[in-house]
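Homework help board

Subject: predicted structure for assignment chain

Our instructor gave us this sequence and asked us to write out the predicted structure in token form, then describe one feature. I got the tokens but I'm not sure how to describe them. Can anyone check?
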Amino acid sequence: MARRTRKAPLTRALQRALNVITRQVTRTVSQAVTQALQAPSSVLAPSPAKRAPVRNADCRLGVVVGLAGAPRYWLYKPPGLRRTERLPLVVMLHGCGQDAEALAASSQMNRIAERQRFLVLYPEQGRLANAAGCWNWYETRSGRAQGEAGTIEAAIDQVCLLQPVDPERITLAGLSAGAGMAALLATRRPERFRAIAMHSGIAPGVAHSSATALMAMGGRQARALPLAPLAAGVRLPGLLVIHGSSDPVVAPSNGAEAARSWAARIGAKPGTPRTVQRGARYAATITDYRSGRRLVASLCEVKGLGHAWSGGAAGQAYSDPKGPDASRMIWAFMVKQFARGGD
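My token output:
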């Protein structure tokens, strides 16, 4: 009885902290959306009816076989897919307040996949697991995060078994909470993934509970804990970080910390930052971290971007068409990592 009495306050405290995170994310994003709607150059469409359809003949629903709750996913396959092909697989992880369909619509990654011929897997968080649709990437002390990572890996296994996937070209990309889960997957199984892209996320190793995640979101914890050293013969996946300088939900310092801590694992050094801008889109400052000639990590800080997919489709939540095209940047970065071979 004494043990149960001591555990109950801790459980309640964690639940309260999780509720605080959910309320803060909802309140902050709602404020940002309201401001955007009131601005002349709103990044959101005035009517949700303009949402672009994603569910078509080439985007199919699946469930992870053999796991409790039958977690589902969406899979995009380019037209004319042949069993003799071996295509790259890009795993896309949505953020809070999203689902698989919403991320597909805002990122428009399927359009690139159609032209460049790769598969796109969109795992979807269940609302019973998190009412806001967030991946519980930060609950590593309780093991909940690792359990969800295992579910996503099971979905990847299933797709690899049923579809013509090239196992040497599997990559990850995520937005916000999806970025945190992508980082967890890549640190757990670095040998499995060739590249990872974190958009508006928190550096791996920073948060281990709902309370520390809340601190990191506010930028109150500057540095991540050192990541585990790589096993002999295991290559580190290349990392692309994209973060907005005006992100009101996840402090921009998290983006810089994610790139720095990732590069530090193998002693990669930052190069001279460079600023790029295309037309009227937001300017971006890019810093590459290299070990010798090898590109280990790249940090893209987008001036003026909030908590939204950079260059995303108009009319979507968490999507800003004024930013540089994150989906194109992510795919171009992944192709560079494919070219590395097995180094």
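Reply (TA_rk): Your tokens look well-formed. For the description, you could write something like this. The first strand starts at residue 59 and ends at 63. That's the kind of observation they're looking for.
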